[in-house]
Predict the structure.
Amino acid sequence: MSLEELQPHLHSIPEHPDWIPYRTSYYREDWGFCLRHRDRERLAPGPYEVVIDSELEPGHLTYAECVVPGSGPGEALVFSHICHPSLANDNLSGVAANALLAREVRATNPRLTWRFVFAPGTIGALTWLAAHEHRLEQVSGGLVLCLLGDDQPLTYKRSRGGATAIDRAAEYALVSSGLAHRVMDFEPYGYDERQFCAPAIDLPVGRLSRSINGGYPQYHTSADDLSLIRPGQLAASLQTLARIVSAIDCNRRLVNLSGKGEPQLGKRGLYASMGGRVAPGDFERALLWILSFADGAHDLVSIATRSGLALDLLDEAAEALERADLVATLPEPAREPKLLAALKSAQVGGKRA
């Protein structure tokens, strides 16, 4: 080929002549080469021999999944993409955080079953969803992880629903962490949150990152290397992730089994036997807050937000009340995507879908 014939298949960045771009053509049969613009400008007129040593044939897709069983019903997932070779922030920071998070959760006794998924972007998420479609009604939601090592503040992108239990738990954990952060609404562009939030799937899956996609000059280039990664920022991302996962895991709706007035807590060993004090301790306050709001409509995150009490303290108080048979955890209602519910009642061609 002449250089003129070759040029449409070459990809470089004129404004950053020493960076190599990351370009893909997954879904259209094409070929090309990514290179430094400085090297591209040095190319002679040719001719060139171009060799593309690849095959297009039925193959396979590989993804990894680490499952940590929970003590109760329900599941949640954490997803990171693995398809961006040699990119440190936009790939490996999410992979590293996901792997370390799985190790942390495995050392606890989670209420939910947690699935930590490592798969190629888009087609990997769709493959995972297809393989698990029979059990998606058990999945309460989850997180997509990416871009967690740079120097930007933590950014939470809400799920398509916008105010789901997953979103509220994540935002509560971010606020209570005291770290600089920002919250953005859902938009159908970005990473694989858009696959999990698709109308006929409708999983409440948010995204945690620092920068957003395309939010820094080195994005999708060879300059997205380890020099971008700030160890302290990556560590803070992991610590915040652990707080978010803990908030999601313990959050639940309760119902008061003795709601016609305040039950006697002292005889159950839950309240101080001596009355007349100025104010109860935090644990006793937590007991009273839960009894007051265990109406089936409020979850622990909403009680924590309203009371100002720590979520882990409310979780401890809720467990004590459950052991005393004063409250019970409500099962989550069956989850049916709104699109499927609409299709069931829609007329398609004169017949019900």
Observations:
- The CA atoms of residues 156 and 208 lie 5 Å apart.
- Confidence is low (pLDDT under 50) at residues 273-278.
- The chain has eleven helices and 14 strands.
